[in-house]
Specification:
The structure is a homodimer. Chain A is elongated, with a radius of gyration of 31 Å. Chain A contains eight helices and 24 strands. With about 425 residues, chain A is α/β, with parallel strands linked by helices. Chain A folds into four domains: about 160 residues, MoaB/Mog-like domain (Molybdenum Cofactor Biosythetic Enzyme, Chain A, 3-Layer(aba) Sandwich), CATH 3.40.980.10; about 45 residues, Molybdopterin biosynthesis moea protein, domain 2 (Alpha-Beta Complex), CATH 3.90.105; about 80 residues, Molybdopterin biosynthesis moea protein, domain 3 (Molybdopterin biosynthesis moeA protein, domain 3), CATH 2.170.190.11; about 90 residues, MoeA, C-terminal, domain IV (Beta-clip), CATH 2.40.340.10. The longest helix of chain A is centred in the last third of the chain and has 19 residues. In chain A, α3 packs parallel to α6. In chain A, β21 and β22 form a beta hairpin. Chain A has a six-stranded mixed β-sheet with strand order 6-3-5-4-8-7, with no helix packed on it. Helices cover about 20% and strands about 30% of the residues of chain A. Chains A and B meet through β9, α2, β13, α3 and β20 of A and β9, α2, β13, α3 and β20 of B. Chains A, B: It is an enzyme of class 2 (transferase). Chains A, B: Its cofactor is Mg(2+). Chains A, B: Keywords: Magnesium, Metal-binding, Molybdenum, Molybdenum cofactor biosynthesis, Transferase. Chains A, B: It catalyses: adenylyl-molybdopterin + molybdate = Mo-molybdopterin + AMP + H(+).
Amino acid sequence: MVERRQPIKVTEAIRRVMNFAKAGSVEYVPIEASYGRFLGENLIADHHVPPFDRSPYDGFAIRAVDTGHASRNSPAELEVAGEIGAGNVFERPAAAGEAVRIMTGAQIPEGCDAVVMLEEVNEIEKNGSNYIQVKRNIQVGNNISFTGEDTKKGSLLTRKGNYITPGIVALLATFGYKNVPVAKKPKIGVIATGSELLEIDAPLEPGKIRNSNASMIQSQIIRAGGEPLYFGQFSDDLELCYNQVKNALDKVDMLITTGGVSVGDYDYLPDIYAKLGCDVLFNKIKMRPGSVTTAAEKDGKLLYGLSGNPSACFVGFELYTRPAIRTFLHSGTPFLQKATAKLGADLLKPNPFDRFVRGHIRYQHGQLVATPVGLDKSNVVSSLAEANILIQLPGGTSGYEAGRNVSVMLLEDQEGMTMEQFITENRP
Amino acid sequence: MVERRQPIKVTEAIRRVMNFAKAGSVEYVPIEASYGRFLGENLIADHHVPPFDRSPYDGFAIRAVDTGHASRNSPAELEVAGEIGAGNVFERPAAAGEAVRIMTGAQIPEGCDAVVMLEEVNEIEKNGSNYIQVKRNIQVGNNISFTGEDTKKGSLLTRKGNYITPGIVALLATFGYKNVPVAKKPKIGVIATGSELLEIDAPLEPGKIRNSNASMIQSQIIRAGGEPLYFGQFSDDLELCYNQVKNALDKVDMLITTGGVSVGDYDYLPDIYAKLGCDVLFNKIKMRPGSVTTAAEKDGKLLYGLSGNPSACFVGFELYTRPAIRTFLHSGTPFLQKATAKLGADLLKPNPFDRFVRGHIRYQHGQLVATPVGLDKSNVVSSLAEANILIQLPGGTSGYEAGRNVSVMLLEDQEGMTMEQFITENRP
């Protein structure tokens, strides 16, 4: 008996899953370990930048008023009262007629209100003292980086849930985050099913293939920001399988099984979901590949039944699991960023369903060009190595010609989109 | 005395550094730890894919000849001789008039040469046996994925030095790489200099700022694929400094110092390079920021003297250190990928030197739009959090208006470019 399933739209499947996506907790890691994590709270400036009036150049700090009548023919002569390196401060207020040699980044001495650059002055010696000659009237504020000019104390620098880049690490250091609040990584369980699957180091056998989905999906989990927990391959016994899923579920925040979701005779997953008392959110989607992608919910935890077909497994993860992982990481934009690109090759096969095709994006004269990989069958495996996008082809009665605009999802993107943007924007 | 330095072009500086860039050694890691590393050897298919003729659908394997005269009114009736699930093989050759129920991915039984899909047949029972009715003449090879159709044994799947994506992990699993040869990460030493620098967890003091460059550059090293080793801040004593650099150099593959490279009075680095007997490759470049970026070589190891200015430090690393790191990782395309983009805002200040401005790229109607970050001074710190490109503005006598084509480097890119591509391509 072939089970009848009710297919739903991709956007509806996304909404059903995201109803159960929730943010996780926050932990602290040393700043050295923060790159690539996701901020656990908004990052606020705890002081002005610069924290004091400082010099952007090597030069002399002066009182602008002392150059009031200076000219090429009658330069102002200011006595060099001392010097300050970066990190030091001049010990007393500068007096009338005085200049202080100052290094890039050093604090402007009290009493001074301008800086003249090194190359703008003549340095002379007179009566055993050092003087500079300034040949023009310098304005108050000349060459000073003022307190708070770059950012004000209390400013929001970046939001919680954002991916921590080297630039954000620099901000964290500037604002004293020796330890950084980051979103805790969700533990994502992985169970592989399929009696055709061999372990990676097993020699090939007739009728069997090596299990590549488990390794692939673990890498996708890491890329999304989660922590994979691999529970191995399913046994062939329903009761044992049930216990494996039940035990795994206790140890994780979400659980992925690969394979075992089709309507064939040997797939236990629907029975296991039933026995667990899961709420099945959907088990058929109007999309290719991955039409039998399944999602369920048990006590607030999401269970994903991804297809055993590698392409379908890959696509199902990026569409339905990744945004739940990024939501756990506090991201406000948990979906892959989409962009519009020109199709780089014909995809003429019409398809009634939305298709998601792995492709490679390149930048050509300022335009995005998306080329499907694996069109040429003799090359399908190696071309997967190059895939960095998913090309979205809305279902219809005709195919797509090269040069037409299509919507693509950027697989290596860290900025993301909101659900509403993902669903509504960049539709070709 | 201000030292006189001979400025060179950016491209010349790149060439001088790359003369000393060399590939490192290879190590093995478990496949679970291979995502994000760089392949240590070319990946070759050790078997055909598929490894055997298999069915892409659930259906019945048949002998096409048995349907020779089949039609809607006179269907061929074939006896169902058994069934095979994925991973199993049919134990004997199929005989004339027989069909074998077959699951997606299962091996085609000997004697069969076509598959009819489940939905194309009528299943009937007659005299206690199961039969299928086929209503048309099926061609030999119908619905069979043939051995080696996707990739041939011996094919090059991806090259050494390539960044290992989830797709490549899947290939590694498919071809039996339980342990994966990856390029060993280069150890990159980091020493911070600058008497104005406070530790990250220190309270602010007059004239001082927290050390953000050390944390930032360590993150950039990780992003580039290296392993950072932080040796702390320089002492203020020349002899001590010299010993710190000398000891650090023994422990690393390349060494970065930040700060201490300008021609000011307090910078020891030139003296230390001289005392070490380094070959200084350059100490002044026609670029902004980072004109005082320095590189030297000692017994084949590269030493970088990056500016203490955060922007200059950031840019100097991406232009001169990153490609040396990627070369160590066996990449054939060690430079950041460049693309042409439309400038999203005016940058009207003319500059005689090449400028590299941190910016943010967005995708707008299929076009790349690059907007400089930190133009608005009141926002310079927070906007750095968003930077994902460097905008390259060739030196000239006029500025750049919004809408003009500019060349940008994609900071999060993993594909890269060769040196010649980087130097010659995508010039606006």
